[in-house]
Amino acid sequence: MEYEVVMGLEVHVELSTESKLFCGCPARFGAGPNENVCPACAGMPGMPAVTNRRAVELGIAAGLLTGSEITRVISFDKKSYFYPDLPCAYQITQYFAPVCTNGRVEIETSRGKRRITLKQIHIEEDAGKLVHDARAGAALIDFNRTSVPLIEIVSNPDFRSAEEVVAYLEKLRSLLSFAGVSDCRMQEGSMRCDVNLSVRPVGSETLGTRTEMKNMNSLKAIAAAIAYESERHIRALQTGSETLVQETRRWDDARGESFSMRGKEDATDYRYFPNPELAPIVIDDEWIARVRETLPETAEAKYTRLTERLGLAEHDAAQITQSRNLSRIFDGTTRIFDKPRDAAGWILVDLLGAVRGDGKTDDDIEIDCEKFAALMRLVDEKIISRAIGKKLLIKVLEEDIDPAAYAEEHGLGLVTDTGAIGDAVREVLAAHEKSVLEYKDGNEKVMGFLMGQIMRRLKGQADPEAVRAALTAALS
Ligand code: ZN
Ligand code: MN
Predict the structure, then answer these.
(1) What's the pTM?
(2) Architecture of domain 418-475 in this structure
(3) Apex 272 CA angle, 152 and 103, nearest 5
(4) Parts of the chain belonging to CATH 1.10.10.410
(5) Residues flanking ion ligand 1, Cβ below 5 Å
């Protein structure tokens, strides 16, 4: 029998607000333990709560970006469960009137375009962070993250493969980080994914027993976990090796397997009820229109502009539009240096090559776009060679030099003097007679070696085209 995997995703995304959802504590990541906590977000009874207007706006923005319907009167509810990282023993979320419903996200996979439909997007508060300290034999709690605003994006069970899941998460990350809704840094936990997975015979309409893997925060781990869980389900159905039960499982990335964490409560166990301390909020047309105006060019529109109007290769455009920062660098440099395809090469090959190994993500790169563009122009106008350009790029990154002034001061201008190039060619050919003979025997690869030697002798400052011409002439 053939089986198909059916998955639905719940994606939690921390919103890029300055402060928390119902108090003024800073919402940012990275403070010392329990530094960003006040009586309200520590769950003290009787503390006044006011909903963060910006969080609601970012929720609306997420809805507009996913073609969702925006709910006109939203409210907040309490979701009861006891866990030490939740000081109130309930989480404030939206159950009865979530901010968005019925959205969609278009994805592209190796088997073509697909549409993932969204059940809803709701706003809720994050929980604190438990740190299990083996040496102390204790669990420590950091409440900094408590009440940081989140949206939870709930999809319908539309996914059939890990590839679709990864494409969807990348698309969400691009949409949301572009619009400044969230930084979507999976490694910092600001984007986390729960995968609900079941397996059924192909052609069947009913869903199989579902298991849930929670809080996954790397695309690689998610793909590996889906592969493992699907296989486990199929094996269980085929051979009766185990009985599948509805449960929450944890993925152990180091061991490459999932294990049972707890039986899954049904939704009714949460005893959702309206939060009487928070007034409902009316979202009118005017507010939605104002949020719409603040949305930047979407990654999709930008992709179309880059490929169709600026003539970039599709995979270059895709890579640039997937990162808000690379997009910013692209826009910032092409504003000054009007050769978009060259600029894309500088950014994707030279800049990424220069910072690779520092453990930086595309979004961490900091560079002065004006200086970067000036550098591109110096090479384009043949004032310096490409090789020198690459070296100056490192200097711009590390020492923030002014490329033109630096090249001038250090005499790095392009060697165009044919006399100097001719001397270098003669010297190199004299020193490598064997290679010259090999070349004359028909081994053309030697050409590259000789070019390298000559360029080195000219300290990388010569125009490769002029050198190649001189070398070809000398060899013939
Ligand atoms: Zn607080
Ligand atoms: Mn949630």
Answers:
(1) 0.70
(2) Orthogonal Bundle (1.10)
(3) 30
(4) 418-475
(5) 23, 25, 38, 40-41
